[in-house]
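Cross-posted from the bioinformatics board.
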Amino acid sequence: MSRYRTDDIIYALATPWGSAALAIIRISGSGSHALLAPYFSKSEALRSAKNATLLHGYLCDQEGRRIDEVVLAVNTKGHGYTLEEAVEITCHGSLSVVAELLDFLSSIGMRSAEPGEFTFRAFLSGRMDLTQAEAVHELVEAQSPVVRAQALARLDGGLKEKLNGMKNTLLALLAPVEVQLDYSEDELDEFVFPDELLDSLLNDLGRLLQSYAIGTLYKSGARIVLAGATNVGKSSLFNLLLKEERSIVSPVRGTTRDYIEADLLLEGIPIRLYDTAGLRESGDEIEREGIRRSEHLIGQADLVIHLLDSTVEDVDRAFDGRTIVVYNKADLRRPPEGALAISAATGEGIGDLLSEVARRLKRGVEGVDESRIVIQSKRQADALLAAEAALKGVKEDLQAALPLDIVAVGLNEALHHLGLITGEVTPNDILESIFSNFCVGK
Amino acid sequence: MDYRALVVGGGHAGIEAGLALSRIGFKTLLITQNLDAIGRLSCNPAIGGLSKGNIVREVDALGGEMAHLIDRSMIQFRILNRKRGPAVQAPRAQADKHTYARLAKETLEGQANLEIFMDTVVDLIIERNRIVGVKTKRGHEISAEVVVLTTGTFMEGRIFIGEYDAPEGRLEEPAAIGLGTALRKKGFPVGRMKTGTPARVRKSSVSLDRLEVQEGDEEPMSFSFDYDGVDRPSVPCHITWTNEKTHRIITDNIHRSPLYGGKIVGQGPRYCPSIEDKVVRFPDRDRHQIFIEPEGLGTEELYLNGISSSLPEDVQSAFIHTIEGLEKAQIMRPGYAVEYDYIDPQALFPSLESKLVENLFIAGQTNGTSGYEEAACQGLIAGINAAQKLKGEKPLILGRNEAYTGVLIDDLVTLGTEEPYRMFTSRAEYRLNLRHDNADQRLTQKGYDVGLRTEEHLQRLREKVSRIESVKDLLRIHRYREKRAFDALKMPEVTIEELAESIPELGAYPPSIRYQVELDVKYDGYIKRQERQINRFERFETMTIPPGLDYDTLEGLSTEARQKLKHIRPLSVGQATRISGMRSSDAAILIIHLQRRSGDA
């Protein structure tokens, strides 16, 4: 349980999530200097830094790979925003760098802060006065299931209605189960579990979660990697794509990297496009390192455009679901029937490729008609996911013919998770529903 | 001081309180209005039921008496909800009312350190916010260090049958007049509640042979953990139904009901509605079920479970005669409603001690509950905590994850109640852990710690636990369907009885042990899930709030929260978060304040 935890190290991006020249990541918590030091190029300097020191250097990941060149602003205990031991990392402001750094911090055992949590800690340390209790409220609200949350009031109308509808459906599922458990068999009519209601609820939940995926897609964007053997025309395609799109931000040449990245916008989705070193066996040390990095990038990509050369005989290779296979140089030789073909030289087929990319990115989230209803916060999505998991468990329990009190465990869990967003449902609310809907009692 | 402890009332709460105090070793007096009414089952002739059966076994594990009384007076036993799963199975027994009450009185009479006296308490004697004694109707002033108040439906009680009403707590039994008024004057938050009971009819006038029969279980279990099984007779109950004719008579005469005519102001229980309530609230139902239950072996009286009513006697008689089997029923006692004073339980600490008057403990229906079992467990806890107070030790407060009794008291003192409070399984968040069969494992040690259970009881518990472990070991060694029998038992369709056929060693263990192993193994995953939930909240429960905390010094609390916190004075953050109207920012401010305090210390 992370609620009110104050004994661990938290981090959060302090600047807006978007491409910029610089970004700042804030870290707070006792032991944060020691935890970060091994990954900073000047470990000893960080360990022994006095308060209000700036340190320039590199942050490297656990395999020793440089993530970015950074400046650390160091605060010791009793100083800074939270009055805890703290570090502010100023790094390059590209989304990929920021994302990688955040992932890295999590991988070394820091925790992504809840909204308002820095304020909460500042408050705890006596740094802030009580007029800011409302900010703390945010955090507690976010995590406290026992207290009736009023979070719902702040949600936009459509979502609020949707969530309330689902909560009522869940109550309608739970109340007849609870009534069976509150009264003995011979006092009640034969009971049949309303499977259709459960299915429709699961369906609704799934759709709402899809809308989260869309929200994330438009907000955080996608990483697309151009991959393929050397000389298949990746760089031509890269340049072509950038030319095709008017909303190019800027191509950034990685200072210490041998791949090139650029931001573009495709049907409203922010995309970071990477042109990588060609994949091939190589004896050259530097090139091998480049290839290794390409593979690393491919591993993290949301989508991979794998280019093949139409003039070269195809090698049998398996691609995963994230990969779009594209035949280049279609102007020179006709690619296999039905394959996606382009000519980076003439621009032929680029339109088709772009619409295929957009289609693939939206795959799994298409058909969400409630495009207005978008779950945006991770907290809401997590609660919905947990509710969905609990209800799937209920379905399994029912299929295994487990008794009703066991089935009720999952239903109650789902209600608890929905309650995290919509406001807690107490045992009294359930009894209320029972008394108003069932004629019970001898 | 005349006595160390004084118990007012001889009902199910008073019995437990009086026995607990005297058994722990304090010279105790139990005062009751009528010696012949000690332990009377005022309403239905049954003990136990869903969640209530669990409470009876909790009372037993802690060292209370209720389980012994019903074990020796039952005339039918059933485990309810065998098909519905482990958490909601519970024992229920029909009682021979007269035997039950006689045994209760005998038990009190046989108890060392306990005196019994017939009089009516009309006022409390309080000095400097501490109780020192009581005044009685006949002018006695009796002093004691602690007092447990268990007045049931008698405090300013009034019964209603149609246009008729009388100052009584049960039909023809005079109310305790004066005490409620005196308590109001002293500033206790006194309110009115209402409950009701159905008519009793004469067995020989009812055609039971035409009605559906409901038999008890063949092998009755004991409620008490002190012995295995009971040897008692088993008589059947019967089932019949109301019909449209019944409903028409009720609808036509509804204006004659004191409930609908506005004479009764007290809130009645929604879960146990009168037949007129059911007919009005659920007009679409063409029939309502009635269980016909014997009031005892030596009596002709039958209890008509399901049609409690306060309609006039001529209307009761008319609608009863429309019911199959009851066409010629002779009504021996009419149904009636009773309205009585209760004290808002939010004025109590979780120990059941009054916040207003030190050393005064209040239990049972006085706190707005309903039901014999609910009364008994409160009486027991009040008695135990009055004794703890006399010893200068910490009160026994059971957690919501430890006992239904804990859920009940926490609900009462934290939320209060708007209607007579009855226990339901759905009130308990952790009901998988609050099974009736493991009440001894949950509570015997606590009963021992307060001086009500002995070394023999602990030894008996240890033996049970070790036998459970032996059975589990057997299941780990043997194989069934190509798996360890232990794992096979986790499959929904495999029962331990089925395993016993291929593992003969299991036959050496009694069914109760095998049953518990089956539940433990089968639902292990779910129980663990629940335990994880418990652990998540445990932190709040263990964050204690110092008793003298001045909420006015906590900046930033909402006005509502400040008022409620000052009123309820919760003992822990967990309890505070359950107060209705607490906002999360309020909880945060409270927590921060406590953490700072402990940081300073």
